[in-house]
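name: query_chain
kind: protein
chains: 1
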Amino acid sequence: MSDTRKLRTTLVHGGARRSQYGEVSEAMFLTQGFVYDSAEQAEARFVKAGPDEFIYARYGNPTVRMFEDRMAAITGYEDAFATASGMAAVNGALMALLKAGDHVVSSRALFGSCLYVLEDVLARFGVEITLVDGTDNAAWDAAIRPDTTLVFLEAISNPTLEVIDLAHVVEVAHRNGAKVIVDDAMATPIYSYAAACGADLCVISTTKHVDGQGRMLGGVVCGTRETIRGPIESYLKHTGAALNPFSAWVHLKSLDTLDLRVRAQSGAAMQIAEALEGHPKLKAVRYPQLPSHPQHKVAMTQAASGGTVLSIEIDGDREACFRFFNALEIFTISNNFADSKSIATHPATTTHQRLPQEQKDILGITPGLVRVSIGLEDPEDLLADLRQALDAV
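structure:
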């Protein structure tokens, strides 16, 4: 596809492959394996499969490949490998590039499952992990060493919405010969700046904005063709993390409206954050594009939007916060985000429940912290719902 085409066009047409039937909608190939015309052809394909040649669904599939090509195009990378979930993408990218004795520097503010992979899984296999305050450039400077293999971070942290100076981190990492992996779930694929800042790989939970309608798990690792079709593909195809064709097809159809949905949701998130700031029942409202956000300046230089999620901190204890949750009428209480339905989450007792209290305190995950994911409902209705629920506090 021509590089001159705009994002919204690429979201609809990128990576398209048509069968001999000339279908309009992308075809869904629900097949485990593929047939060869001869034993010689089978042998040749196992030696080296061409770009439109497939062997087994765990290795690749035409529907999945369309989705991978489209995700690579919209994020600005050469290639991508789709996975069964966002955490399969995170785990696969880390495991594919690391071995015992390697050193990883990561931001401390991470999703609970990412911390588990780093601190419990990788550390158990002899990988040295150093966690830093991701918002402190000097901390990155001090932690990244000439023997550092990999740097890992969330562009916008979940759930406290810390924003990292990605260009600075990439520059320091590359100067020391380390690769950078960015978890882009909160930044959204539409406002992703990982490639623009020079990150080697980005991982995205496509469960979130891409599907974005509460149906399918999925994930993707994006990067250079050499890395994706080299160590990433080798690890993922042999360990069974492949995205199934039906999920890939649903994701493809969702990409048609991704730009429209994310822009509407992000605009509503900003509108609601501005309206709630200063509310007497709130200690804080956090959204990267608010001038009061601690990393507002760097956030504004990196992206045109802060995404579809904001965080609020209720002035009260766990019981007061639960009264807020139980008074909500439009917002759904759940642990997902980036859905078409608006969702409220209490990280301290759900997504980050397993973290020791000391770590919660460091990250700012207080009993009053609420992650607010803005959906496609009318922003005025959502704001009214939040305000009436705050009255219950």
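note: Residues 258-276 form the longest helix (19 residues).
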